[in-house]
Amino acid sequence: MLALPLALLASKIACRSDLDCSLNGLCTDGACVCDVPWGGARCQTLLLAAGREGVGGIPLAAYHGDSLNATSWGASVLHAPEDGRYYMWVAAMTNKCPLADWMTNSEVHLAVSDEPLGPFAKIRTLVSPWAHNPQTIRAPDATVASGHAYVLFTLGDGKNYHGDPKVCDGRSPAPPMPPVPPPPWVVKPCRFGPPHGQHSWAGCMVANFTLFWSETPAGKWREHTAQILDWPVHHTGRPWDYGPYGNWNPAPIVHPNGTIFVQVRASSSFRLRYTS
């Protein structure tokens, strides 16, 4: 006799905790009150809107890349005191290809807006395929007049480690080019022990990787070869991961004392942290 009333009661209750609201809202009196821009009975639907139109009167940052249906993700936004504008470094797919082709068609765009919530307009392609997951910092630099430089870390450095970009927009593909081979390495003893649970290291190597820097976001961007002194080498004799070692999901942070910390993925099970 109790089964039917309980079933009816359960059907009317949309949530019992904030977890039932997908962590995109609060469970209030058995119903989800969603944060902007989420909607749905369990706040499971992202209500996309362009720029100032927004949702609920709150504008949303928007970036459409080269077309309205172009895929973009992983934006890094900074306010530039030089001109008061907001700059976005964002990964995007080229040649109208889907996200499934990220191994060959991802690139990094530079965009700008007068307000932090956008919309952002593309300035140019900053790093050609293969590159994505951009992270930009404004770091102290005594070698430039302003005393600061903008430094862009990316996954990939614009070289075709996985083959030429695919063509998904109907154009004829360019003649194929051979993939760029990974840089050479020399195994040496590590200055530190392996992370907990990692016992399959053969040693370490000095890993060169490419980052990009400019005195101002809209100025001239230059390539710079940096080094990681202790990049792990697997017991098979090959470095962890592939391509431009050290450019794998970088997360740079500028400490108040000016030290730059970079945490970077080195395998599927651990991360490495470096300082500069």
Topology overview:
Elements: H1 3-12, E1 25-28, E2 31-34, E3 38-39, E4 45-46, E5 72-79, E6 86-93, H2 102-105, E7 106-113, E8 121-127, E9 132-140, E10 148-155, E11 201-214, E12 222-234, E13 251-254, E14 260-265, E15 271-275
Antiparallel strand pairs: 1-2, 3-4, 5-6, 6-7, 7-8, 9-10, 10-11, 11-12, 13-14, 14-15
Give the tally of β-strands: 15
Mean pLDDT: 78
Strand content: 35-45%
Helix count, DSSP H or I runs of 4 or more residues = 2
Report the sheet with the most strands, covering strand number, pairing sense and barrel closure: 4 strands, antiparallel
Largest sheet: spatial strand order? 5-6-7-8
How many structural domains does the protein architecture include?
2
Signal peptide: 1-17
InterPro entries: Glyco_hydro_beta-prop_sf (IPR023296)
Protein name: EGF-like domain-containing protein
Keywords: Signal
